[in-house]
Amino acid sequence: MNQVIDTILSHRSIRKFTEQPISDQQLEAILNAARAASSSSFIQCVSVIRVTDTEKRRLLAEYAGGQAYVETCAEFLVWCSDFSRHVQIKPDAKVGFAEQTLIGAVDTALMAQNAMLAAESMGLGGVYIGGLRNNPDKVCELLKLPEHVYAVFGMCLGHPDQDPEIKPRLPKSIMVHDNDYKRIDEETLAEYDEQVREYYQTRTGGNKSTSWTEQISATLDKEARPFMKDFLRRKGYLKF
To answer: What is the domain partition of the chain in residue ranges?
Structure first.
């Protein structure tokens, strides 16, 4: 164990922040850490939009489903898959393939996670805002994202003003397989379901009592954001 691993294992989503700003030096370090992430084939197909305009923050919070902390956090970063600059460099570039769509999302996530860990190592906290994909066209219009660029998610960062418990993850025995894939052990899953139920009861003061199985069953009962496929094609992704 070391300090890096301790920071990783201490991750919580922070949704309430003090009014203290993040210093220029801290933000520079966070973004440099992000830029150091691995890049598939050195394509470097990620852009970050730092949003400081208060009206744009308000609208992004609205587009994300009324997540007020988008407005109140010290820094709000929008992480984008970006093949636009590649087309600027090579106008006849072959972009829009399914593999490139995957690479864009993967590389964006790698950079953002580096940034989150860097922030947490400084005592800061944050939360990812996938809700930007609730209104992807509006987000693109607001941030003037051209073809071949779209917002994968947002990220709130700031000084924490809450101390939530760490949300329990699936047991390693369910997520990590030796040599080949194994089916879920029902007894282990039942124990985890009870652990998650107790977590929600504690966090909500008894107002929520949901197991992980119940939660994912409700989540996967229908397609989430069915409009995303057409949106991505309009933005120059999933064309082939």
So the answer is: 3-164+223-234, 172-209
